[in-house]
Design brief:
By secondary structure, the protein is α/β, with parallel strands linked by helices. Helix content is about 35%, strand content about 15%.
Length: about 600
């Protein structure tokens, strides 16, 4: 729809229809929701736009919002999530936090009480401006029907500009029923920030002086063109490349200058080498907590020069002082950097050294137990399609993929950088709904699966077939690891009891597999793919192997187990107890 036709009167429409039309006008094509009576009129409006808005009905609000977040990660464009007021908004808040910390564009619409009841502690009343203020880029509420096109258009602008992120919009109940004659608004055409040519020249001069540079790639909303330009720039200059936490697929891991990931469970050898670096080039990375190993990897004062490239100048140097900050859209930076004359590198040996560390850590150790997950990951890599999408949850299990898998040019790997459990299964379903022709693999621990695994019902309902790998060690593994480090042998609150995951998916009509031995994995995965159904492959792993590099026995080594508690002494019963008033009473005959 062109700008002129958008501005024409559409006649009187109720607010729900105006909202549905506004989403279409702003380029939104997917809505993930759990229905509520607080936005019935909006659901009715979307009925009329059902050819242009794919409405995905989910089973839990956290699942719906995480699906919308995964859509934004994979496309660089916002999807909409819709939840009802009060409890629905609380359930959905986790996905907003994921989107905020991961810089993912997203819209969340929350049904609201009638505007006239505000302040009465009405049924499910919440002030969403207060609730979501620290979690979102912008929080607002629509109380007047005529404001709908304006607010939705601005929400999309906010979600996609600068550092992308989530916007939360509350919809007062009666506003959706009121009719109004208001025009739809077109998308705003806004040019993105281009890097300052002088800053690019300074960056090149700083690279020319370096002996041990390290690149850290992160950020969101990379395009295929931007990724290709980034690859040209980094290869031409033979720069060693690391990726930020859960940003593994931002750079082709098979390339000769890929050195690995910085985050939770990173290679200690790589971390040691980054500490030797004499220049850090952070492209899209905020150099956050996980990437910098709890803000300990770099000097806050910037004794090692840092060049940081981000689309939002307010984020540059937020924690670590930068020698050079470049405000730019990441894709525009990559295109401009690729056009620079390459520096004659003085670090060829340094890059080879870092690459050799990556190759060394990909060598699979001879782990104890019948199921070697390192080998499983290497076999999975060989079976993944060139454009496969892998989603991950929070937990120690995720280290198996990041250590042993290399993601190629067109593959994607997404996960929550805020460490949210319960993300992977909904994200995998959202990814498969968004890209139904691509292989989608969801990796999740047994703890995370039981938080949102019911969203597999959504996969069946919408006819998509992700493959879920459940890493089952019958515990909250990450917390158990920390527990064993701080309080060895004293297991408390971290053990789990699980169902038979294969039978769980079979109850839906899906395909289930149980793998306890390394040799069983490849045929099980092939059967899952060939089934064409949503599938679970339960990986019954060795519980003692708490990370890819340590066992529980390692964590307990040299620490004595606690002494068993002494059994309480049982008091000796008197030989002839004194008769009580009851015992002395005569029995009735």
């Amino acid at each position: 729809m062109d700008s002129a036709s958008n501005r024409k009167s559409r006649g009187a429409r109720h607010g729900g229809r105006i909202l549905a039309d506004a989403l279409v006008s702003q380029g939104i094509d997917h809505v993930f929701e759990v229905p509520g009576e607080s936005f019935l009129d909006t659901l009715d409006g979307m009925y009329d736009q059902r050819q242009k808005l794919k409405l995905v009905t989910c089973r839990f609000e956290a699942g719906a919002v995480n699906m919308a977040e995964a859509y934004g990660k994979l496309t660089g464009r916002p999807a909409a999530a819709m939840v009802t007021r009060g409890p629905g908004a609380c359930h959905g808040a986790i996905g907003v936090h994921v989107a905020f910390q991961d810089s993912t564009p997203m819209l969340l619409f929350v049904g609201q009480i009638p505007h006239e009841d505000t302040g009465r502690d009405a049924f499910q009343e919440v002030d969403y401006r207060q609730m979501f203020a620290p979690l979102a880029k912008w929080v607002t509420q629509i109380d007047h029907t005529k404001r709908i096109p304006e607010v939705v258009a601005h929400a999309v602008d906010v979600a996609t500009s600068g550092r992308p992120g989530p916007v939360v919009i509350a919809l007062s109940e009666e506003m959706q029923r009121v009719e109004a004659d208001v025009p739809d608004l077109p998308r705003a055409r806004t040019s993105v920030a281009f890097p300052d040519p002088a800053a690019l020249r300074e960056m090149r001069a700083m690279l020319a002086k370096a002996k041990k540079p390290v690149v850290v790639v992160g950020g969101s909303c990379w395009t295929a063109e931007g990724r290709a330009a980034l690859k040209r720039f980094l290869l031409a200059n033979k720069l060693p490349v690391t990726v930020g936490f859960r940003r593994q697929a931002h750079y082709d891991g098979s390339l000769e200058n890929f050195a690995g990931d910085l985050g939770v469970g990173s290679d200690p050898g790589l971390i040691g080498k980054v500490k030797e670096a004499d220049l850090i080039l952070a492209i899209g990375s905020r150099l956050g907590d996980a990437v910098t190993q709890g803000y300990s990897l770099l000097d806050l004062a910037g004794s090692v020069p840092i060049i940081q490239v981000l689309p939002d100048g307010g984020e540059i140097g937020r924690v670590f002082r930068t020698a050079l900050g470049i405000v730019s859209d990441l894709n525009m930076f990559a295109l401009a950097a690729a056009d620079l004359d390459p520096v004659k590198p003085a670090w060829a040996g340094w890059t080879r050294e870092l690459r050799s560390l990556r190759e060394a850590q990909r060598a699979v150790p001879n782990y104890d137990g019948t199921l070697n997950l390192g080998t499983v990951m290497r076999e999975l890599e060989a079976m993944m399609t060139p454009d496969a999408i892998v989603t991950t949850d929070a937990g120690n299990f995720a280290g198996w993929a990041t250590r042993f898998l290399n993601f190629s040019e067109d593959q994607r790997y997404i996960g929550p950088t805020n460490g949210a459990m319960g993300y992977s299964v909904p994200a995998g379903i959202g990814a498969k709904i968004t890209f139904p022709d691509r292989m989608v693999i969801s990796m999740v621990g047994d703890g995370g699966f039981m938080m949102t695994g019911q969203e597999l019902a959504t996969a069946f309902h919408h006819g998509v077939a992700p493959i879920v790998l459940v890493f089952n060690n019958q515990m909250y593994g990450t917390i158990r690891m920390h527990q064993e480090r701080a309080y060895p042998w004293r297991v408390s609150g971290t053990a789990l009891t699980n169902p038979d995951f294969a039978k769980y998916i079979e109850a839906f009509g899906g395909h289930g597999e149980v793998v306890s031995d390394t040799a069983e994995f490849t045929p099980a995965f092939r059967r899952a793919v060939e089934s064409g159904k949503p599938a679970i492959i339960e990986l019954r792993m060795n519980p003692d192997q708490i990370t890819t590099r340590a066992t529980i026995a390692d964590l307990r080594a040299g620490k004595a187990p606690p002494k068993p508690a002494a059994k309480p002494k049982r008091a000796a019963a008197p030989a002839h107890p004194k008769p009580t008033r009851a015992s002395g009473a005569k029995k009735r005959g």
